Amino acid sequence: MKRQRPGPTRFTGRLAAATAIAVGAMAFASWRGWTTMVENRLMVEVQSALDKRDFVTAQRLLQEQLQSHARNAEALTLAAQAARRAGDFRQAETWIDRAERAGAIAEVVARERALTQVQTGRNPAVAHYLSVAEAHPNDPASQLLLEAIIEGALVRLDLPTARHAVALWDKSAGTQEQRAASLAWQGELAARRGDIAAAATAYRQAVAETPSSTSRRRRLADLLSRYEPSEALVQLDSITAERPSTDPVSLLIRARCQRALGDFEAADATLHQLLAIQPADYDALVEQGQLSLELRRYEEAESSLRAALRDRPAGREALQALERCLRLNSKHTEAAAIAEQLARLDQQLDERLRQLRETGQVSP
Q1: How large is the C-alpha radius of gyration of the chain?
Q2: CA angle, 52 as apex, 152 and 146 as ends, to 5°?
Q3: 217 vs 233: CA distance, rounded Å
Q4: Could you report the per-residue pLDDT of 107-143, keeping only the tens digit for each?
């Protein structure tokens, strides 16, 4: 019996099916290639943001990546690094725990945790890490190490170590961002020595290097608010030129400047806006108390300052303002008790400074 060839309809159906499978395979491969390309491009953008120390952008891009790839160990590790370098240590710990569970390299996880300890001033092996960074000046890992050492030394008031690490950083600071970071650290060193004018000068130079850096411009405004409130407001206005800021730090600095310039109504409005965002914020409550003192509203001032002290019982600024408030309001017995508390705090501070000087952590 003669074998029958498939009819045109059956042949066309098979061809269509084969074509559909081939096209589907090509489409899948194309989709995989496209998603890989997008992922790679995204990670390049993340690394670029980290190199510029633009941690806000890096964290945003990594969140975008992790929405579709929640167990990407590399992205999780970089998210931990970005959060740590931005000072969000709780979030950094969350990310590195997730990275470890996702199979991140154990040495990378251990290094990131060690850097967190260094940056928070809790790692006793800082001298060893400093020697490692000094021995490998061109290694990108040394930059990360020096950055953590500097931040941690500033936290501990270990100014000699911070100065040494900044000097090492300067030897390989080839980019504009790296030079600006050095200037900002020099500003922080000056601020911790009590030289606010020198700190502001260093931050002016840092802002000139990186005009788009909101954090440095905000810190410059904070420093200027102590003795040049008008210029501080100019810096804040340049940050909020495009849209009004609801950033609590900027609002606090603005309120301080407005009070210093005698614009009490504007300061009161700014503080109400700030306290609506952070009702129990220590600094905001102290500023509210200071403003009430200026307006001779002593009961309101006392209420705000005592609320601040509930959050920070040994808050020196709040205690000083409260002692003054109680004296002005003829509550002399309570004022004397606060004065005694301040005296004890002064003794503790003097003892701490003596210990730091003896160990060489603070210059005499």
Answers
A1: 28
A2: 30
A3: 11
A4: 999 999 999 999 998 888 899 999 999 999 888 889 9
